[in-house]
Amino acid sequence: xxxxxxxxxxxxxxxxxxxxxxxxxxxxxxxxxxxxxxxxxxxxxxxxxxxxxxxxxxxxxxxxxxxxxxxxxxxxxxxxxxxxxxxxxxxxxxxxxxxxxxxxxxxxxxxxxxxxxxxxxxxxxxxxxxxxxxxxxxxxxxxxxxxxxxxxxxxxxxxxxxxxxxxxxxxxxxxxxxxxxxxxxxxxxxxxxxxxxxxxxxxxxxxxxxxxxxxxxxxxxxxxxxxxxxx
Length: 231
What we know:
alpha+beta, 3-stranded antiparallel sheet, two-stranded antiparallel ribbon, 5 strands
């Protein structure tokens, strides 16, 4: 199998891996599928629940428009890929790889991102505890130093992308990694906590003051979800 086809197989496997058996009606932000198609997950909080850190207007546009576009485009490209596979059309399969990777990655990343957020009255901004808290202390010398390193990585992104706290599946250690565009965290690393550095995640509220967004978003980070992923 070629490297490009293997990458798409990895993306599609990752999409299946983050699927939850819970229906969208239950309001959980797990990646869901309807007859094999990706679907937009419901949020477990209202669009305005993360204010003032993230405005309701941004959340509504980000979720209902941007994320929905990734879902729709992934499904469209996936259908074309399946048709090409049924016809053994390798050239078309290869040509579809960028779309599958980009939109499938966007769906994965945003699904994880919504789960990484919570209103303050539902635990948003509470300090990490347990084994993840200890791992952060050991690796970075405390939460504030970790946040400083994380925000430095966010600010250093050129163009659009994400910064993630990941767990190395081989060593069990944690580290901060940046990913361009919508490249998802797959393979050796497991995503624990990610922050979206695309302009659509903050510009309507913060304009060119993205450093303020990087600082404010920690007030609504859901560390409990990150702790469960770490375990």
